[in-house]
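Sharing a chain and its predicted structure for anyone who wants a worked example. Both blocks are below, sequence first, tokens second.
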Amino acid sequence: IYHAELLHDEKSQTITVHVLDGTAKNEVPIPAKFVRINIKRAGKGEQFQLKPAPQKHETQGKTARFTLKDGTLCDRLHAEGIDARLVVEIEGKSYSGRAAHSHHHAHAQP
């Protein structure tokens, strides 16, 4: 099991996701080219890709941090009646979990 921390900076309209281990305490750098947030609202779907944002201490080609500056995504995460899911691929396995803005965490399971 992995966890993910979803941070929303309203001022810069940036969403940041940190991939965490099963204890939700330690970052887990992964070689993904992106992570996705899929949003369903009123029967319509939208998909947002967050790009890697490596931190100085991470090895090349892997990161635990992904970001996207997008006012639309920020608005959607605040909207009522949405189903937002974070989708991450780790070591060839797809994980997804509900991205709850109010809790700032998504729990990803295969």
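Comments welcome. Strands lie at 2-9, 14-20, 35-41, 44-52, 65-69, 82-90, 93-100, 105-108.
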